[in-house]
């Protein structure tokens, strides 16, 4: 499938990309080559091929999902400009 300059202009507009009028033929050529590659990929037989998340089969590192309170309240409140009774004090914004 070949992309013409009008289609390239419309694609650039839809993608909100400013493309100079002189660059539209080059963009049309690049988009045509991308579509040709996609057509070439669709010809590959993928029956019986397991989906992959990475090129090399490597298990992800996992940790136990343990709930903690963080135990960092004093460190966090030390950065607050105004802290009262264990909480950050902020200006009232709603009357």
UniProtKB/TrEMBL annotation:
Catalytic activity as recorded in UniProt: L-aspartyl-tRNA(Asn) + L-glutamine + ATP + H2O = L-asparaginyl-tRNA(Asn) + L-glutamate + ADP + phosphate + 2 H(+); L-glutamyl-tRNA(Gln) + L-glutamine + ATP + H2O = L-glutaminyl-tRNA(Gln) + L-glutamate + ADP + phosphate + H(+)
Record keywords, A-Z: ATP-binding, Ligase, Nucleotide-binding, Protein biosynthesis, Transferase
InterPro entries to which the protein is assigned, alphabetical: Asp/Glu-ADT_sf_sub_c, GatC
A GO molecular-function descriptor: transferase activity
EC number: 6.3.5.-
A Pfam cross-reference name: GatC
Function as written in the Swiss-Prot or TrEMBL entry: Allows the formation of correctly charged Asn-tRNA(Asn) or Gln-tRNA(Gln) through the transamidation of misacylated Asp-tRNA(Asn) or Glu-tRNA(Gln) in organisms which lack either or both of asparaginyl-tRNA or glutaminyl-tRNA synthetases. The reaction takes place in the presence of glutamine and ATP through an activated phospho-Asp-tRNA(Asn) or phospho-Glu-tRNA(Gln).
Protein name as it appears in the record: Aspartyl/glutamyl-tRNA(Asn/Gln) amidotransferase subunit C
Lineage: Bacteria, Pseudomonadati, Pseudomonadota, Alphaproteobacteria, Rhodobacterales
